[in-house]
């Protein structure tokens, strides 16, 4: 549950989840909605995947992300968005989170 | 090694059986009356429905293409919310309403969740048949 709160604390990750509410999207399409570098986006995707909030699978050369929110997590996402809950500290991604972008794409 | 859903199901079953046994023992010992035992068990059943409803959107299954997954996502979400809320309503009604009203209203809540799920599933199929899912 701690991982879920950590994932939902960041507005970028919440935005990713909101984009995925419309349907599955590729990593590239998701990244196009943000101005961050690809490794940064990749780190965000990894945090979401570790919290089991998204599911990733390969289709051809693309990695497709699907929303995997339970009802409780969906409600938490709604609350976090409504009340603007932000991360208490913005620590840089760890080595594990900083996977190379081409592997994730 | 047993799968996670199987272990979760077994754990839920053990909790339900243990709670039912504890309630029955309490009734025989004269600590709680029969009406309270029935209400508590109805609340437990409602919570179980809510628990499994909560997990419905997480059971994505194997991907069958982006368009298929795009159609299925709202069905899972709507049915998850419907069964979670219906389960919670079923549980709460057991304690705040007289027995007959709680039974009828609880069943109505569960039946409504089922109807909502079926409507969402039919809409998903109709959208596919109408060509909305063409790749």
3D structure, described in words:
The complex is a heterodimer of chains A (105) and B (135). A 3-stranded antiparallel sheet of chain A has the order 1-3-2. In chain A, a hairpin with a 2-residue loop joins strand 2 (54-59) and strand 3. Chain A has 105 residues and is an alpha+beta fold. Chain A contains 6 helices and 3 strands; from the N terminus they run H-H-E-H-H-E-E-H-H. Chain B is an all-alpha fold. The longest helix of chain B has 34 residues, at 99-132. In chain B, helix 1 packs antiparallel against helix 2 and helix 3 (66-96) runs antiparallel to helix 4 (99-132). Classes of the chains: A alpha+beta (105), B mainly alpha (135). The A-B interface holds A 21-24, 52, 55, 57, 59, 64, 66-72, 74 and B 53-58, 60, 63, 65-66, 69-70, 73, 77, 80-81, 84.
Q: What is the oligomer described by this structure?
A: heterodimer
Which structural class do you get from the secondary structure elements of chain A? alpha+beta
Compute the CA-based radius of gyration of chain B. Answer: 19 Å
Whole-number mean pLDDT of chain B: 87
Number of strands of chain A: 3
How is the largest sheet of chain A built, in terms of strand order? 1-3-2
First and last CA, distance of chain B: 38 Å
Q: List low-confidence stretches of chain A.
A: 87-105
Our Rg estimate of chain A from Cα atoms comes to: 13 Å
Shape of chain B: elongated
Would you spell out the secondary-structure blueprint of this structure?
The complex is a heterodimer of chains A (105) and B (135).
Chain A: H1 2-9, H2 11-20, E1 25-26, H3 27-31, H4 38-50, E2 54-59, E3 62-67, H5 71-83, H6 101-104
Antiparallel strand pairs in A: 1-3, 2-3
Helix pairs in contact in A: 1-4
Chain B: H1 4-28, H2 34-55, H3 66-96, H4 99-132
